Amino acid sequence: MINKAPFNAMITAVGHYVPDRVIDNKYYEEYLDTSDEWIKSRTGITERRKLDADTPTSFMAIKAIENLIKNRGIGIDEIDLIIVGTVTPDMIFPSTACILQRELKAVNAWGFDLLAACSGFIFSLATAVQFVHSGSHKKVIVVGADKMSSISNMEDRNTCILFGDGAGAVLLEPTEDKEYGILDSILRVDGEGEKYLHMLGGGSLNPPSLETIEKKMHYVYQDGKTVFKEAVKSMADVSYEIMTKNNITSDQVSYLVPHQANMRIITACAERMGISMDKVMLNIHKYGNTTSGTIPICISEYWQEGKVKKGDYLILSSFGAGYTWGSILVKWAF
Length: 334
Ligand code: COA
Fold this sequence. Notes:
- The structure is a single chain.
- The protein is of the alpha/beta class.
- It is built from ten helices and 13 strands.
- Helix 4 links the parallel strand 4 (81-85) and strand 5.
- The longest helix is centred in the C-terminal third of the chain and has 22 residues, at 224-245.
- The protein is globular and about 55 Å long.
- The site of coenzyme A (COA) has 20 residues, from helix 2, helix 7 and strand 12.
């Protein structure tokens, strides 16, 4: 990404929300052939959060944005654009962005949803940056929000233990100080990944029917082993690539902020970059894989704990269905 604009896009506020209800690993032991020990050792997950069955993704996104707006101390009417990374929109249409605009009374904002699965936040952030660089937008909210419990088959031990519900949001604004903000992004897709990670039902290929319900096509399917191998390689490669491309050494990186799908993928990524685990933002143990939510929730929590400082280099990295993957280099601005 070569930014020829007279300013950079910087993150100026963060916010997040996770539901109160905690589902620990023992919950699954009660009815599935699994164990707390297996889940912890193979994934790094101890517990995850679950939203009420009749509450939609937008509820969490609204809470995350309200948290962000409070942290920034601005009015919602100042927001120009809302981009929502999600695979679990409230409904196919209207977009969740429209629902957020209405519910938050963001009277001056337009918005849209962006679908890139676990890379939803990274892809949305990179998209939002372009609107700021163009000079046309001054305050853009990017929210990653997913209610994975709405598309997880609770009888499938291969997938249901992995996912959780949550939302995180960041605010982007222009800065004339080109040393700070979103400095670079590398984004990739490989459509060959479809067969290993997908949800086949509900779209125009397989519209909802009794048959799609019976075949459980409205749930996440994952060939875990294949996806695991691809994720390790792709996320590690792209994280290393953005670091070297920008002449940043591992010593200079304050935090790797990886998508939280599996602790072993995260560890491999950190190793490849030569980064110690104390410089890796983690929330997988308590929230599992919240898809678009993992990265912004991490950043928001670490910031709220006072662990992120002006001048810190952050490398955000993700891998997900598509396949989609990528990394973003940030120099923290506040
Ligand atoms: N409890 C107990 N056993 C389980 C289990 C569970 N919850 N889930 C799967 N198993 C079993 C499998 O059925 C398999 O049994 P088998 O050998 O008799 O068939 C065995 O454990 C080993 O499965 P395997 O797939 O080799 O385990 P793994 O080490 O790959 O771990 C995942 C499984 C899903 C945790 C891992 O593959 C993974 O994290 N994949 C990638 C996830 C990801 O990055 N997604 C990207 C974006 S969402």
